[in-house]
Write a structure and sequence with these properties.
alpha/beta; Rossmann fold; N-(1-d-carboxylethyl)-l-norvaline Dehydrogenase, domain 2; 2 domains; 10-stranded mixed beta sheet; 10 strands; 45% helix
Chain lengths: 316, 316
Protein backbone atom coordinates (compact mmCIF):
# COMPACT_ATOMS: atom_id res chain seq x y z
CA UNK A 1 0.00 0.00 0.00
CA UNK A 2 1.21 3.54 -0.76
CA UNK A 3 1.24 6.52 1.60
CA UNK A 4 -1.15 8.35 -0.72
CA UNK A 5 -3.93 10.34 0.88
CA UNK A 6 -7.21 10.49 -1.02
CA UNK A 7 -9.84 13.20 -1.35
CA UNK A 8 -13.21 12.09 -2.66
CA UNK A 9 -15.04 14.95 -4.37
CA UNK A 10 -18.65 13.90 -4.61
CA UNK A 11 -19.24 11.03 -2.24
CA UNK A 12 -22.39 9.59 -3.77
CA UNK A 13 -22.96 6.04 -4.93
CA UNK A 14 -19.73 6.12 -6.93
CA UNK A 15 -17.29 8.30 -4.95
CA UNK A 16 -18.67 7.08 -1.65
CA UNK A 17 -18.20 3.46 -2.65
CA UNK A 18 -14.59 3.79 -3.84
CA UNK A 19 -13.64 6.02 -0.90
CA UNK A 20 -15.07 3.52 1.56
CA UNK A 21 -13.21 0.65 -0.08
CA UNK A 22 -9.92 2.58 0.11
CA UNK A 23 -10.44 3.55 3.76
CA UNK A 24 -11.34 0.00 4.69
CA UNK A 25 -8.05 -1.17 3.16
CA UNK A 26 -6.21 1.24 5.44
CA UNK A 27 -5.70 4.33 3.32
CA UNK A 28 -6.33 7.86 4.57
CA UNK A 29 -9.46 9.18 2.86
CA UNK A 30 -11.27 12.54 3.10
CA UNK A 31 -14.83 12.75 1.83
CA UNK A 32 -16.55 15.85 0.47
CA UNK A 33 -20.28 15.43 0.99
CA UNK A 34 -23.37 17.48 0.26
CA UNK A 35 -26.79 16.08 1.09
CA UNK A 36 -25.34 13.26 3.24
CA UNK A 37 -22.86 15.45 5.13
CA UNK A 38 -24.51 15.66 8.56
CA UNK A 39 -25.56 12.04 8.57
CA UNK A 40 -22.14 10.70 7.56
CA UNK A 41 -20.29 12.99 9.96
CA UNK A 42 -22.31 11.45 12.80
CA UNK A 43 -22.76 7.88 11.62
CA UNK A 44 -20.12 7.07 9.04
CA UNK A 45 -20.78 4.97 5.92
CA UNK A 46 -22.39 1.59 5.38
CA UNK A 47 -21.71 -0.46 2.27
CA UNK A 48 -24.00 -3.33 1.41
CA UNK A 49 -22.05 -5.28 -1.16
CA UNK A 50 -22.07 -8.50 -3.15
CA UNK A 51 -18.43 -8.82 -1.96
CA UNK A 52 -19.42 -8.54 1.72
CA UNK A 53 -21.12 -5.78 3.71
CA UNK A 54 -19.08 -3.43 5.88
CA UNK A 55 -19.46 -0.33 7.99
CA UNK A 56 -17.05 2.56 8.60
CA UNK A 57 -18.33 4.09 11.80
CA UNK A 58 -16.05 7.07 11.44
CA UNK A 59 -15.01 8.88 8.29
CA UNK A 60 -13.37 12.24 7.58
CA UNK A 61 -16.42 14.14 6.35
CA UNK A 62 -16.46 17.71 4.99
CA UNK A 63 -18.93 19.95 3.27
CA UNK A 64 -16.32 22.43 2.04
CA UNK A 65 -12.98 21.74 0.35
CA UNK A 66 -11.39 24.74 2.14
CA UNK A 67 -11.49 22.69 5.33
CA UNK A 68 -9.98 19.57 3.78
CA UNK A 69 -6.25 18.80 3.83
CA UNK A 70 -4.33 18.84 0.57
CA UNK A 71 -4.22 15.27 -0.73
CA UNK A 72 -2.08 13.13 -3.03
CA UNK A 73 -4.99 11.85 -5.11
CA UNK A 74 -8.27 13.62 -5.77
CA UNK A 75 -10.99 11.32 -7.00
CA UNK A 76 -13.80 13.23 -8.71
CA UNK A 77 -17.05 11.33 -8.41
CA UNK A 78 -19.44 14.15 -9.32
CA UNK A 79 -21.79 13.96 -12.27
CA UNK A 80 -20.48 15.91 -15.28
CA UNK A 81 -23.48 18.24 -14.87
CA UNK A 82 -21.79 19.54 -11.69
CA UNK A 83 -18.35 20.18 -13.20
CA UNK A 84 -18.94 23.92 -13.03
CA UNK A 85 -18.21 23.53 -9.29
CA UNK A 86 -14.70 22.19 -9.80
CA UNK A 87 -13.00 25.57 -10.31
CA UNK A 88 -14.01 26.36 -6.72
CA UNK A 89 -13.57 22.89 -5.21
CA UNK A 90 -10.18 21.79 -6.51
CA UNK A 91 -7.56 24.52 -5.97
CA UNK A 92 -7.52 24.26 -2.14
CA UNK A 93 -6.71 20.54 -2.39
CA UNK A 94 -3.70 20.66 -4.70
CA UNK A 95 -0.12 19.95 -3.66
CA UNK A 96 2.73 20.04 -6.16
CA UNK A 97 2.39 16.36 -7.03
CA UNK A 98 -1.33 15.88 -6.49
CA UNK A 99 -2.97 13.72 -9.11
CA UNK A 100 -6.59 14.25 -10.15
CA UNK A 101 -8.59 11.17 -11.15
CA UNK A 102 -11.71 12.16 -13.07
CA UNK A 103 -13.99 9.17 -12.72
CA UNK A 104 -16.88 10.21 -14.95
CA UNK A 105 -18.93 9.10 -17.91
CA UNK A 106 -18.82 10.67 -21.32
CA UNK A 107 -16.32 12.70 -23.29
CA UNK A 108 -14.53 16.02 -23.15
CA UNK A 109 -14.62 16.78 -19.45
CA UNK A 110 -10.82 16.43 -19.26
CA UNK A 111 -9.96 19.53 -21.34
CA UNK A 112 -12.12 21.62 -19.01
CA UNK A 113 -10.68 20.15 -15.83
CA UNK A 114 -7.16 20.52 -17.25
CA UNK A 115 -7.74 24.28 -17.38
CA UNK A 116 -8.19 24.23 -13.60
CA UNK A 117 -5.52 21.76 -12.47
CA UNK A 118 -3.12 21.55 -15.42
CA UNK A 119 -2.77 18.68 -17.84
CA UNK A 120 0.25 16.96 -16.34
CA UNK A 121 -1.60 15.73 -13.25
CA UNK A 122 -4.87 14.67 -14.83
CA UNK A 123 -5.99 11.05 -15.17
CA UNK A 124 -9.29 10.05 -16.71
CA UNK A 125 -11.18 7.07 -15.40
CA UNK A 126 -14.14 5.01 -16.50
CA UNK A 127 -16.01 3.12 -13.85
CA UNK A 128 -18.00 -0.04 -14.40
CA UNK A 129 -20.02 0.04 -11.25
CA UNK A 130 -23.63 -0.81 -10.56
CA UNK A 131 -24.59 0.75 -7.27
CA UNK A 132 -27.31 2.85 -5.73
CA UNK A 133 -28.01 4.75 -2.57
CA UNK A 134 -30.41 3.15 -0.11
CA UNK A 135 -30.46 6.07 2.33
CA UNK A 136 -28.09 8.69 3.79
CA UNK A 137 -24.59 7.18 3.99
CA UNK A 138 -25.90 3.78 2.92
CA UNK A 139 -24.70 2.53 -0.45
CA UNK A 140 -25.67 -0.69 -2.19
CA UNK A 141 -22.91 -2.16 -4.37
CA UNK A 142 -24.78 -4.35 -6.84
CA UNK A 143 -22.24 -5.45 -9.43
CA UNK A 144 -18.74 -5.06 -10.89
CA UNK A 145 -16.86 -1.94 -9.76
CA UNK A 146 -13.75 -2.25 -11.91
CA UNK A 147 -12.23 0.90 -13.36
CA UNK A 148 -10.11 1.79 -16.35
CA UNK A 149 -7.70 4.67 -16.08
CA UNK A 150 -5.54 6.53 -18.56
CA UNK A 151 -3.54 9.71 -18.37
CA UNK A 152 -4.98 12.71 -20.17
CA UNK A 153 -2.74 14.45 -22.72
CA UNK A 154 -3.83 17.37 -24.88
CA UNK A 155 -6.47 16.38 -27.46
CA UNK A 156 -6.59 12.90 -25.99
CA UNK A 157 -3.25 11.87 -27.46
CA UNK A 158 -1.78 8.58 -26.34
CA UNK A 159 -0.07 8.96 -22.96
CA UNK A 160 2.37 6.66 -21.20
CA UNK A 161 1.49 5.02 -17.92
CA UNK A 162 3.28 6.64 -14.96
CA UNK A 163 4.56 5.23 -11.69
CA UNK A 164 1.93 7.27 -9.87
CA UNK A 165 -0.77 5.46 -11.85
CA UNK A 166 0.74 2.13 -10.83
CA UNK A 167 0.68 3.23 -7.20
CA UNK A 168 -2.97 4.21 -7.44
CA UNK A 169 -3.74 0.93 -9.18
CA UNK A 170 -2.12 -0.94 -6.34
CA UNK A 171 -4.09 1.05 -3.73
CA UNK A 172 -7.35 0.18 -5.47
CA UNK A 173 -6.46 -3.44 -6.00
CA UNK A 174 -5.65 -4.10 -2.37
CA UNK A 175 -9.02 -2.46 -1.70
CA UNK A 176 -10.67 -5.06 -3.90
CA UNK A 177 -11.23 -2.85 -6.95
CA UNK A 178 -9.80 -4.19 -10.22
CA UNK A 179 -8.02 -1.53 -12.29
CA UNK A 180 -7.05 -1.67 -15.95
CA UNK A 181 -4.39 0.75 -17.16
CA UNK A 182 -4.47 2.20 -20.65
CA UNK A 183 -2.35 4.52 -22.76
CA UNK A 184 -5.42 5.40 -24.81
CA UNK A 185 -7.98 7.12 -22.64
CA UNK A 186 -10.04 8.27 -25.61
CA UNK A 187 -10.55 4.71 -26.88
CA UNK A 188 -11.79 3.63 -23.45
CA UNK A 189 -14.17 6.59 -23.29
CA UNK A 190 -15.63 5.75 -26.70
CA UNK A 191 -15.94 2.08 -25.77
CA UNK A 192 -17.97 2.95 -22.70
CA UNK A 193 -20.19 5.16 -24.88
CA UNK A 194 -21.08 2.16 -27.06
CA UNK A 195 -23.18 1.02 -24.12
CA UNK A 196 -24.01 4.33 -22.50
CA UNK A 197 -25.44 6.17 -25.49
CA UNK A 198 -28.16 3.73 -26.57
CA UNK A 199 -29.21 2.41 -23.18
CA UNK A 200 -29.10 5.63 -21.18
CA UNK A 201 -30.93 7.55 -23.91
CA UNK A 202 -33.59 5.01 -24.73
CA UNK A 203 -34.27 4.20 -21.07
CA UNK A 204 -35.30 7.83 -20.59
CA UNK A 205 -37.04 8.42 -23.93
CA UNK A 206 -39.02 5.17 -23.86
CA UNK A 207 -39.38 4.97 -20.07
CA UNK A 208 -37.87 1.49 -20.17
CA UNK A 209 -35.53 -0.80 -18.33
CA UNK A 210 -32.76 -2.63 -20.17
CA UNK A 211 -34.73 -5.88 -20.25
CA UNK A 212 -37.67 -4.18 -21.97
CA UNK A 213 -35.37 -2.64 -24.58
CA UNK A 214 -33.82 -6.07 -25.18
CA UNK A 215 -37.26 -7.70 -25.31
CA UNK A 216 -38.43 -6.05 -28.54
CA UNK A 217 -36.96 -6.65 -32.00
CA UNK A 218 -37.43 -3.02 -33.02
CA UNK A 219 -35.51 -1.57 -30.10
CA UNK A 220 -32.80 -4.24 -30.38
CA UNK A 221 -32.28 -3.14 -33.99
CA UNK A 222 -32.30 0.48 -32.92
CA UNK A 223 -29.68 -0.20 -30.24
CA UNK A 224 -27.47 -1.90 -32.84
CA UNK A 225 -27.85 1.01 -35.27
CA UNK A 226 -27.00 3.53 -32.55
CA UNK A 227 -23.96 1.46 -31.51
CA UNK A 228 -22.83 1.45 -35.14
CA UNK A 229 -22.98 5.24 -35.08
CA UNK A 230 -20.88 5.32 -31.90
CA UNK A 231 -18.29 3.17 -33.69
CA UNK A 232 -18.35 5.67 -36.55
CA UNK A 233 -17.85 8.46 -34.03
CA UNK A 234 -14.84 6.68 -32.54
CA UNK A 235 -13.46 6.15 -36.01
CA UNK A 236 -13.77 9.86 -36.74
CA UNK A 237 -11.30 10.27 -33.82
CA UNK A 238 -8.99 7.58 -35.25
CA UNK A 239 -10.10 5.01 -32.69
CA UNK A 240 -11.12 1.58 -33.97
CA UNK A 241 -13.63 -0.46 -32.04
CA UNK A 242 -14.29 -3.80 -33.73
CA UNK A 243 -17.86 -4.60 -34.86
CA UNK A 244 -17.78 -7.68 -32.63
CA UNK A 245 -17.83 -5.33 -29.64
CA UNK A 246 -21.50 -4.58 -30.42
CA UNK A 247 -22.56 -8.20 -30.03
CA UNK A 248 -20.53 -8.40 -26.83
CA UNK A 249 -22.44 -5.43 -25.40
CA UNK A 250 -25.79 -6.91 -26.44
CA UNK A 251 -24.98 -10.26 -24.85
CA UNK A 252 -23.77 -8.54 -21.69
CA UNK A 253 -26.96 -6.48 -21.46
CA UNK A 254 -29.23 -9.46 -21.99
CA UNK A 255 -27.61 -11.09 -18.97
CA UNK A 256 -28.17 -8.08 -16.69
CA UNK A 257 -30.97 -8.03 -14.20
CA UNK A 258 -33.71 -5.54 -15.24
CA UNK A 259 -31.60 -2.43 -14.89
CA UNK A 260 -32.40 1.24 -14.45
CA UNK A 261 -29.65 3.26 -16.16
CA UNK A 262 -27.99 6.15 -14.34
CA UNK A 263 -29.62 8.64 -16.69
CA UNK A 264 -33.03 7.14 -16.00
CA UNK A 265 -32.42 7.37 -12.26
CA UNK A 266 -31.43 11.03 -12.68
CA UNK A 267 -34.56 11.63 -14.74
CA UNK A 268 -36.87 10.08 -12.18
CA UNK A 269 -35.24 12.13 -9.43
CA UNK A 270 -35.58 15.26 -11.60
CA UNK A 271 -31.86 15.86 -11.63
CA UNK A 272 -30.18 17.32 -14.73
CA UNK A 273 -29.21 14.62 -17.24
CA UNK A 274 -25.61 14.09 -18.41
CA UNK A 275 -26.63 14.77 -22.00
CA UNK A 276 -23.67 16.90 -23.04
CA UNK A 277 -21.01 14.56 -21.68
CA UNK A 278 -22.64 11.39 -22.93
CA UNK A 279 -24.09 12.51 -26.30
CA UNK A 280 -23.50 16.19 -27.04
CA UNK A 281 -19.70 16.14 -26.83
CA UNK A 282 -19.25 12.89 -28.80
CA UNK A 283 -21.56 14.33 -31.49
CA UNK A 284 -19.48 17.51 -31.63
CA UNK A 285 -16.17 15.61 -31.85
CA UNK A 286 -17.54 13.60 -34.78
CA UNK A 287 -18.99 16.71 -36.43
CA UNK A 288 -15.61 18.46 -36.22
CA UNK A 289 -14.21 15.52 -38.15
CA UNK A 290 -16.98 15.95 -40.73
CA UNK A 291 -19.05 12.95 -39.63
CA UNK A 292 -22.82 13.19 -39.15
CA UNK A 293 -24.52 10.78 -36.78
CA UNK A 294 -28.26 11.26 -37.39
CA UNK A 295 -29.66 8.84 -34.84
CA UNK A 296 -27.43 10.13 -32.06
CA UNK A 297 -28.41 13.66 -33.10
CA UNK A 298 -32.05 12.74 -32.69
CA UNK A 299 -31.47 11.13 -29.29
CA UNK A 300 -29.76 14.36 -28.25
CA UNK A 301 -32.71 16.50 -29.34
CA UNK A 302 -35.27 14.24 -27.71
CA UNK A 303 -33.33 14.16 -24.43
CA UNK A 304 -32.80 17.93 -24.38
CA UNK A 305 -36.56 18.38 -24.71
CA UNK A 306 -37.32 15.89 -21.93
CA UNK A 307 -34.60 17.22 -19.62
CA UNK A 308 -35.76 20.83 -19.97
CA UNK A 309 -39.36 19.92 -19.25
CA UNK A 310 -38.39 17.66 -16.37
CA UNK A 311 -36.42 20.40 -14.61
CA UNK A 312 -38.96 23.14 -15.39
CA UNK A 313 -41.84 21.12 -13.99
CA UNK A 314 -39.83 20.49 -10.86
CA UNK A 315 -38.95 24.16 -10.34
CA UNK A 316 -42.42 25.53 -11.05
CA UNK B 1 -77.36 17.81 -55.37
CA UNK B 2 -76.87 14.32 -56.87
CA UNK B 3 -79.00 11.24 -56.26
CA UNK B 4 -76.04 9.46 -54.78
CA UNK B 5 -76.62 7.36 -51.69
CA UNK B 6 -73.78 7.21 -49.17
CA UNK B 7 -72.57 4.44 -46.88
CA UNK B 8 -70.30 5.52 -44.04
CA UNK B 9 -68.02 2.68 -42.92
CA UNK B 10 -66.70 3.67 -39.53
CA UNK B 11 -68.85 6.45 -38.14
CA UNK B 12 -66.47 7.87 -35.59
CA UNK B 13 -65.29 11.44 -35.29
CA UNK B 14 -64.40 11.52 -38.98
CA UNK B 15 -66.96 9.32 -40.75
CA UNK B 16 -69.72 10.38 -38.37
CA UNK B 17 -69.01 14.04 -39.00
CA UNK B 18 -69.00 13.83 -42.81
CA UNK B 19 -72.02 11.53 -42.88
CA UNK B 20 -73.99 13.89 -40.66
CA UNK B 21 -73.11 16.87 -42.85
CA UNK B 22 -74.24 15.01 -45.98
CA UNK B 23 -77.52 13.87 -44.39
CA UNK B 24 -78.22 17.36 -43.11
CA UNK B 25 -77.83 18.66 -46.67
CA UNK B 26 -80.52 16.21 -47.80
CA UNK B 27 -78.57 13.23 -49.03
CA UNK B 28 -79.44 9.63 -48.17
CA UNK B 29 -76.82 8.31 -45.79
CA UNK B 30 -76.37 4.91 -44.11
CA UNK B 31 -74.03 4.65 -41.12
CA UNK B 32 -72.11 1.56 -40.02
CA UNK B 33 -71.45 1.89 -36.31
CA UNK B 34 -69.73 -0.18 -33.68
CA UNK B 35 -69.50 1.10 -30.11
CA UNK B 36 -72.08 3.86 -30.73
CA UNK B 37 -74.59 1.68 -32.55
CA UNK B 38 -77.31 1.29 -29.93
CA UNK B 39 -77.12 4.87 -28.81
CA UNK B 40 -77.25 6.32 -32.32
CA UNK B 41 -80.05 3.99 -33.41
CA UNK B 42 -82.15 5.37 -30.56
CA UNK B 43 -81.01 8.98 -30.40
CA UNK B 44 -79.39 9.95 -33.68
CA UNK B 45 -76.29 12.13 -33.94
CA UNK B 46 -75.38 15.51 -32.47
CA UNK B 47 -72.70 17.69 -34.01
CA UNK B 48 -71.27 20.55 -32.01
CA UNK B 49 -69.48 22.63 -34.60
CA UNK B 50 -67.70 25.91 -35.07
CA UNK B 51 -69.96 26.29 -38.14
CA UNK B 52 -73.15 25.86 -36.07
CA UNK B 53 -74.41 22.97 -33.93
CA UNK B 54 -77.04 20.58 -35.28
CA UNK B 55 -78.84 17.40 -34.36
CA UNK B 56 -80.08 14.54 -36.55
CA UNK B 57 -82.68 12.84 -34.39
CA UNK B 58 -82.94 9.95 -36.79
CA UNK B 59 -80.23 8.28 -38.82
CA UNK B 60 -79.96 4.99 -40.70
CA UNK B 61 -77.80 3.08 -38.25
CA UNK B 62 -76.38 -0.43 -38.75
CA UNK B 63 -73.91 -2.68 -37.03
CA UNK B 64 -73.49 -5.04 -39.96
CA UNK B 65 -72.95 -4.23 -43.63
CA UNK B 66 -75.04 -7.23 -44.70
CA UNK B 67 -78.10 -5.32 -43.54
CA UNK B 68 -77.20 -2.11 -45.35
CA UNK B 69 -78.44 -1.26 -48.86
CA UNK B 70 -75.94 -1.14 -51.68
CA UNK B 71 -74.84 2.49 -52.08
CA UNK B 72 -73.40 4.77 -54.76
CA UNK B 73 -70.57 6.06 -52.62
CA UNK B 74 -68.87 4.25 -49.77
CA UNK B 75 -66.90 6.51 -47.48
CA UNK B 76 -64.34 4.62 -45.39
CA UNK B 77 -63.66 6.43 -42.16
CA UNK B 78 -61.97 3.62 -40.27
CA UNK B 79 -58.42 3.88 -38.96
CA UNK B 80 -55.93 2.05 -41.20
CA UNK B 81 -55.32 -0.35 -38.32
CA UNK B 82 -58.81 -1.74 -38.97
CA UNK B 83 -58.45 -2.23 -42.71
CA UNK B 84 -58.32 -5.99 -42.23
CA UNK B 85 -62.11 -5.73 -41.74
CA UNK B 86 -62.77 -4.30 -45.21
CA UNK B 87 -62.71 -7.61 -47.07
CA UNK B 88 -65.75 -8.57 -45.02
CA UNK B 89 -67.44 -5.15 -44.86
CA UNK B 90 -67.29 -3.93 -48.45
CA UNK B 91 -68.55 -6.63 -50.85
CA UNK B 92 -72.23 -6.51 -49.70
CA UNK B 93 -72.34 -2.77 -50.42
CA UNK B 94 -71.08 -2.73 -53.99
CA UNK B 95 -73.19 -1.98 -57.05
CA UNK B 96 -71.71 -1.91 -60.54
CA UNK B 97 -70.89 1.78 -60.35
CA UNK B 98 -70.27 2.17 -56.64
CA UNK B 99 -67.34 4.40 -55.84
CA UNK B 100 -65.21 3.83 -52.73
CA UNK B 101 -63.73 6.90 -51.04
CA UNK B 102 -60.88 5.91 -48.71
CA UNK B 103 -60.60 8.84 -46.32
CA UNK B 104 -57.55 7.82 -44.33
CA UNK B 105 -54.12 8.99 -43.27
CA UNK B 106 -50.87 7.56 -44.51
CA UNK B 107 -49.73 5.66 -47.56
CA UNK B 108 -50.33 2.39 -49.34
CA UNK B 109 -53.79 1.48 -48.11
CA UNK B 110 -55.16 1.91 -51.65
CA UNK B 111 -53.37 -1.08 -53.23
CA UNK B 112 -54.83 -3.30 -50.50
CA UNK B 113 -58.36 -1.94 -50.84
CA UNK B 114 -58.09 -2.16 -54.63
CA UNK B 115 -57.66 -5.92 -54.24
CA UNK B 116 -61.12 -6.03 -52.65
CA UNK B 117 -63.11 -3.57 -54.75
CA UNK B 118 -61.05 -3.18 -57.92
CA UNK B 119 -58.95 -0.20 -58.91
CA UNK B 120 -61.37 1.52 -61.23
CA UNK B 121 -63.76 2.59 -58.47
CA UNK B 122 -61.27 3.63 -55.83
CA UNK B 123 -60.72 7.23 -54.75
CA UNK B 124 -58.27 8.23 -52.08
CA UNK B 125 -59.01 11.12 -49.76
CA UNK B 126 -57.09 13.15 -47.22
CA UNK B 127 -59.08 14.88 -44.56
CA UNK B 128 -58.01 18.02 -42.74
CA UNK B 129 -60.39 17.77 -39.84
CA UNK B 130 -59.94 18.51 -36.17
CA UNK B 131 -62.73 16.79 -34.27
CA UNK B 132 -63.26 14.58 -31.28
CA UNK B 133 -66.00 12.54 -29.69
CA UNK B 134 -67.64 13.99 -26.59
CA UNK B 135 -69.83 10.96 -25.89
CA UNK B 136 -71.87 8.34 -27.78
CA UNK B 137 -73.19 9.93 -30.98
CA UNK B 138 -71.90 13.34 -29.96
CA UNK B 139 -69.10 14.74 -32.12
CA UNK B 140 -67.26 18.01 -31.62
CA UNK B 141 -66.07 19.61 -34.87
CA UNK B 142 -63.22 21.87 -33.81
CA UNK B 143 -61.59 23.13 -36.98
CA UNK B 144 -61.29 22.87 -40.77
CA UNK B 145 -62.85 19.76 -42.31
CA UNK B 146 -61.79 20.22 -45.91
CA UNK B 147 -60.80 17.15 -47.92
CA UNK B 148 -58.57 16.44 -50.90
CA UNK B 149 -59.50 13.61 -53.19
CA UNK B 150 -57.79 11.90 -56.09
CA UNK B 151 -58.49 8.75 -58.03
CA UNK B 152 -56.24 5.78 -57.34
CA UNK B 153 -54.48 4.21 -60.30
CA UNK B 154 -52.00 1.35 -60.06
CA UNK B 155 -48.75 2.37 -58.32
CA UNK B 156 -50.20 5.80 -57.64
CA UNK B 157 -49.88 6.95 -61.22
CA UNK B 158 -51.50 10.23 -62.16
CA UNK B 159 -55.24 9.77 -62.72
CA UNK B 160 -57.73 12.04 -64.43
CA UNK B 161 -60.63 13.53 -62.53
CA UNK B 162 -63.95 11.85 -63.34
CA UNK B 163 -67.50 13.12 -63.48
CA UNK B 164 -68.34 10.98 -60.48
CA UNK B 165 -65.66 12.80 -58.49
CA UNK B 166 -67.20 16.13 -59.50
CA UNK B 167 -70.62 14.90 -58.35
CA UNK B 168 -69.22 13.85 -54.98
CA UNK B 169 -67.41 17.16 -54.68
CA UNK B 170 -70.69 18.94 -55.29
CA UNK B 171 -72.48 16.81 -52.66
CA UNK B 172 -69.83 17.68 -50.09
CA UNK B 173 -69.71 21.34 -50.97
CA UNK B 174 -73.44 21.87 -50.58
CA UNK B 175 -72.97 20.14 -47.21
CA UNK B 176 -70.44 22.79 -46.24
CA UNK B 177 -67.31 20.67 -46.75
CA UNK B 178 -64.69 22.19 -49.08
CA UNK B 179 -63.20 19.64 -51.50
CA UNK B 180 -60.02 19.96 -53.55
CA UNK B 181 -59.63 17.65 -56.53
CA UNK B 182 -56.27 16.33 -57.62
CA UNK B 183 -54.86 14.13 -60.36
CA UNK B 184 -51.91 13.27 -58.12
CA UNK B 185 -53.13 11.42 -55.06
CA UNK B 186 -49.62 10.35 -54.08
CA UNK B 187 -48.37 13.94 -53.88
CA UNK B 188 -51.26 14.84 -51.57
CA UNK B 189 -50.57 11.82 -49.37
CA UNK B 190 -46.90 12.76 -49.02
CA UNK B 191 -47.81 16.39 -48.30
CA UNK B 192 -50.04 15.35 -45.43
CA UNK B 193 -47.22 13.18 -44.12
CA UNK B 194 -44.95 16.22 -43.84
CA UNK B 195 -47.11 17.20 -40.88
CA UNK B 196 -48.29 13.82 -39.71
CA UNK B 197 -44.96 12.05 -39.36
CA UNK B 198 -43.14 14.46 -37.03
CA UNK B 199 -46.05 15.63 -34.93
CA UNK B 200 -47.89 12.34 -34.51
CA UNK B 201 -44.68 10.48 -33.71
CA UNK B 202 -43.12 12.98 -31.35
CA UNK B 203 -46.39 13.64 -29.52
CA UNK B 204 -46.44 9.95 -28.53
CA UNK B 205 -42.70 9.45 -27.97
CA UNK B 206 -42.23 12.64 -25.95
CA UNK B 207 -45.71 12.69 -24.40
CA UNK B 208 -46.19 16.21 -25.74
CA UNK B 209 -48.74 18.51 -27.28
CA UNK B 210 -47.91 20.46 -30.42
CA UNK B 211 -47.30 23.67 -28.46
CA UNK B 212 -44.68 21.95 -26.28
CA UNK B 213 -42.90 20.57 -29.34
CA UNK B 214 -42.92 24.07 -30.87
CA UNK B 215 -41.73 25.62 -27.61
CA UNK B 216 -38.28 24.04 -27.55
CA UNK B 217 -35.46 24.81 -30.02
CA UNK B 218 -34.25 21.20 -30.03
CA UNK B 219 -37.60 19.71 -30.98
CA UNK B 220 -38.26 22.46 -33.55
CA UNK B 221 -34.96 21.51 -35.22
CA UNK B 222 -35.87 17.86 -35.00
CA UNK B 223 -39.27 18.49 -36.61
CA UNK B 224 -37.55 20.34 -39.46
CA UNK B 225 -35.05 17.52 -39.99
CA UNK B 226 -37.83 14.93 -40.02
CA UNK B 227 -39.83 17.03 -42.48
CA UNK B 228 -36.75 17.20 -44.72
CA UNK B 229 -36.65 13.41 -44.69
CA UNK B 230 -40.33 13.28 -45.68
CA UNK B 231 -39.52 15.55 -48.63
CA UNK B 232 -36.70 13.15 -49.57
CA UNK B 233 -39.18 10.29 -49.33
CA UNK B 234 -41.60 12.09 -51.65
CA UNK B 235 -38.74 12.78 -54.06
CA UNK B 236 -37.86 9.10 -54.11
CA UNK B 237 -41.39 8.62 -55.54
CA UNK B 238 -40.84 11.43 -58.09
CA UNK B 239 -42.99 13.87 -56.14
CA UNK B 240 -41.56 17.31 -55.46
CA UNK B 241 -42.66 19.22 -52.39
CA UNK B 242 -40.94 22.61 -52.16
CA UNK B 243 -38.76 23.37 -49.11
CA UNK B 244 -40.99 26.35 -48.35
CA UNK B 245 -43.75 23.90 -47.45
CA UNK B 246 -41.82 23.07 -44.26
CA UNK B 247 -41.95 26.66 -43.00
CA UNK B 248 -45.64 26.78 -43.90
CA UNK B 249 -46.31 23.71 -41.75
CA UNK B 250 -44.29 25.14 -38.84
CA UNK B 251 -46.16 28.45 -38.99
CA UNK B 252 -49.49 26.67 -39.20
CA UNK B 253 -48.64 24.51 -36.18
CA UNK B 254 -47.50 27.47 -34.08
CA UNK B 255 -50.93 29.00 -34.63
CA UNK B 256 -52.82 25.90 -33.47
CA UNK B 257 -54.28 25.70 -30.03
CA UNK B 258 -52.37 23.16 -27.86
CA UNK B 259 -53.29 20.09 -29.86
CA UNK B 260 -53.35 16.40 -29.11
CA UNK B 261 -52.54 14.51 -32.32
CA UNK B 262 -54.72 11.61 -33.44
CA UNK B 263 -51.91 9.15 -32.72
CA UNK B 264 -51.51 10.53 -29.22
CA UNK B 265 -55.25 10.18 -28.61
CA UNK B 266 -55.08 6.58 -29.82
CA UNK B 267 -52.10 5.96 -27.52
CA UNK B 268 -53.86 7.36 -24.48
CA UNK B 269 -56.93 5.24 -25.23
CA UNK B 270 -54.67 2.20 -25.70
CA UNK B 271 -55.80 1.71 -29.26
CA UNK B 272 -53.35 0.40 -31.89
CA UNK B 273 -51.36 3.22 -33.50
CA UNK B 274 -51.40 3.88 -37.26
CA UNK B 275 -47.65 3.30 -37.44
CA UNK B 276 -47.55 1.29 -40.65
CA UNK B 277 -49.73 3.66 -42.67
CA UNK B 278 -48.11 6.83 -41.42
CA UNK B 279 -44.43 5.80 -41.14
CA UNK B 280 -43.80 2.16 -42.05
CA UNK B 281 -45.22 2.29 -45.58
CA UNK B 282 -43.57 5.62 -46.51
CA UNK B 283 -40.25 4.22 -45.24
CA UNK B 284 -40.69 1.10 -47.36
CA UNK B 285 -41.58 3.10 -50.49
CA UNK B 286 -38.41 5.17 -50.05
CA UNK B 287 -36.30 2.10 -49.30
CA UNK B 288 -37.54 0.42 -52.50
CA UNK B 289 -36.23 3.47 -54.33
CA UNK B 290 -32.89 3.07 -52.54
CA UNK B 291 -33.36 5.97 -50.13
CA UNK B 292 -32.62 5.63 -46.42
CA UNK B 293 -34.40 7.90 -43.97
CA UNK B 294 -32.62 7.35 -40.63
CA UNK B 295 -34.67 9.64 -38.41
CA UNK B 296 -37.97 8.29 -39.70
CA UNK B 297 -36.57 4.81 -39.21
CA UNK B 298 -35.83 5.59 -35.60
CA UNK B 299 -39.30 7.09 -35.04
CA UNK B 300 -40.74 3.87 -36.44
CA UNK B 301 -38.70 1.69 -34.07
CA UNK B 302 -39.51 3.82 -31.04
CA UNK B 303 -43.23 3.83 -31.86
CA UNK B 304 -43.34 0.09 -32.46
CA UNK B 305 -41.83 -0.45 -29.03
CA UNK B 306 -44.28 1.90 -27.34
CA UNK B 307 -47.31 0.57 -29.23
CA UNK B 308 -46.52 -3.05 -28.39
CA UNK B 309 -46.07 -2.27 -24.70
CA UNK B 310 -49.18 -0.10 -24.65
CA UNK B 311 -51.41 -2.83 -26.06
CA UNK B 312 -49.79 -5.60 -23.99
CA UNK B 313 -50.27 -3.71 -20.75
CA UNK B 314 -53.89 -3.16 -21.66
CA UNK B 315 -54.55 -6.80 -22.48
CA UNK B 316 -52.73 -8.25 -19.48
Amino acid sequence: MSNNTYAIIGSGTLGGFYGAKLQKAGLEVHFLLHSDYHHVLQNGLIIKSKDGDFKLSQVNAYNNTNEMPKCDVILIGLKTTQNNLLAKFLPPLLKENTVVLLLQNGLSAEPEVAKIVGEQRLIGGISHLASNKLSFGYIHHIDDGSIRIGRYARNYQFAKITNKMREITHDFEISGVPVYLTEDLLLERWKKLVWNIPYNSLSVILDARTNEIMGNANTINLVVEIMQEVLEGAKSCQRQIPDTYIQKMLDHTKKLQPYLTSMKIDYERRRPLEIEGIIGNPLRMAREAGIKLPKMGMLYQQLKFLDTRNIQNFSS
